[in-house]
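Hi there. Long-time user, first ticket. I'm pasting a complex I've been working with (about 407 residues overall). I'd like to know whether the download I got is complete or cut off, because the file seemed smaller than I expected. Thanks.
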Amino acid sequence: MKLTTKLLAASAIVSATGAFATDLEVTHWWTSGGEAAAVAELAKLFDASGDHWVDGAIAGSGGTARPIMISRITGGDPMGATQFNHGQQALELVEAGLMLDLTDVAEANDWKNKIFPSTLLDACTIDGRIYCAPVNIHSPEWLWLSNKVYEDLGLPVPTNWNEFVASAEAVRAAGKVPLALGNQPWQSNLAFGAMQVAVAGLDNWKAVNMDKNMEVAAGDAYAAVFQAAADARGLAVGSNVQDWNQATNLVITDQAAGQIMGDWAQGEFAVAGEVAGTDYTCLPGLGLNAYLSTGGDAFYFPKLEDAEKEEAQKRLAAMIVSPEAQVAFNLKKGSLPIRGDVDLSAANDCMKKGLELLASGNVMPSGDMLWTPDTQKQVEDLMVEFWMSDMDPAVAHERWVDILSNN
Ligand code: GAL
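Hi, the file is complete. Here it is re-exported in full:
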């Protein structure tokens, strides 16, 4: 290692000394109440070192933000750092030589031994070099329920998706929406993704998503997934909201019984002062098959051709992975930390369920890690069509297999 590289790496691990003073614009799509509270923790820590987090929140959703982020980087107007989901979203940017190589920071901070599960670092590694700093593990496979809706009906809170479906008629009769679902395309796609492992089970999920076994994809286990999606489509009628957090809010305010959403929903319940287990219930794997995919968010750092900024970028990368940032950020975000050596005793019941699943290895890689962005987009488009129409589940199933077969 050259001396200058060593110095750079060492400076990346200097903590809160107030010795630095570089502005870095950081783009992300964290604009809901819980998300904003979480991102503020990162900004606070970065600012405490003397550097300055210039917040570049992009409202809408990942689907709105990502093309803006990418076009800024390819169009010569790069930010200092940007969120992506770890996986293949930034692959082309890295391959085009536009992103900063963080391998020295990773080595200086022993990311190889600290980051868990190791698939998170693998997702940042391209040709043996590391290009991102994972910040959290987020899993989409959760059903969130309003306890009050069921108490008011005199019914037990469902313990799984089947009970949830069975209780839906009573929920409807009480003038409430069984399933809250925002209209943005990614949300129905997320619900479908969550149903895959919940309904088809882990072995079938692995066969399709990891081994790309198209016979299993076309078979009965997945026909049941499409049937469950058709049920969900009916239950979501009347949930006229756009953003995911508006849908979560329908559950928080007991206007809807449940929502299939990622664990980031926890941030909204927390901001609203709701208590897990008392006010709301969370069912990983929709209560059927409790496995979580370990996708999430990571920060990437576009090359800026500015030595001072580059040092600040590396300091920020090191900070994001640090135990301090991991605790502060993830407790607010509702996500799990990317390292096992941090103290999350303050975690609520839902986060504890997630931590247990992670510790017991009941996890799988995320779709972002397994399928190209193009395939994922095609599935998302199919899901929009399916959820917005009365498309026969068998037809959707066939079209889905076609898309996967051409990945
Ligand atoms: C996901 C992201 C989460 C969460 C969510 C909704 O893509 O991984 O951090 O914020 O979008 O905005």
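A couple of notes from our side: The chain has two domains: 3-138+295-355, 142-293+371-405. Residues 1-16 have pLDDT under 50 and may be disordered.
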